[in-house]
Amino acid sequence: MNCLIQSLKPSSLRIPVMNVFRTLETVASVNPVEQKTMEPSEELDKLYKIVEVELRGNEPAVLRSFAKFATTAGQHLDVQCKSWNLKKPIHERYTVLKAAHIYKKHRVQYETRTYYMFVQYKHLTGSTADTLLEYIERNLPEGVALKATKVELQRLPDYFKPLSS
């Protein structure tokens, strides 16, 4: 133990501190920081005809509550919105043996029900759509899946010209 303490005395640890600072100074003086001027870029905002949000879950009450939240959020941003759901849930049934190795005639059935709800927003700009979708995604409850589909409006290309008659 004494050997370890003796080997770590300040006299045995000699680090050239001044050399480190000198190299940093020379590097900083060789490459000065250049300040770039930001020019405002004229980028047009995207326009969306429809943004449709599909919600999936196993609990219909949670889906109804969240759909009401999503439509209310859209109305606060002055966006036309409506919501609807599929009448029947989609059932998936799995039949499994009760025992792992024998007794083939003893089986158990498991069932999952998936409920769907849709919320549709009309005539949005790109920034409004991004803000709204981010707000909805952050408040998504547990057990609910969200899928957003956007239909973007675009200009016709220049090679499409009206017929001259």
UniProtKB/TrEMBL annotation:
It is found in: Mitochondrion. The keyword Chaperone does not apply. Residues 52-149 form the Small ribosomal subunit protein uS10 domain. InterPro entries: Ribosomal_uS10_dom, Ribosomal_uS10_dom_sf, Ribosomal_uS10m. It comes from the Eukaryota. Its main location: mitochondrion. Keywords: Mitochondrion, Ribonucleoprotein, Ribosomal protein. GO terms for cellular component: mitochondrial small ribosomal subunit. Belongs to the universal ribosomal protein uS10 family. This is Small ribosomal subunit protein uS10m.
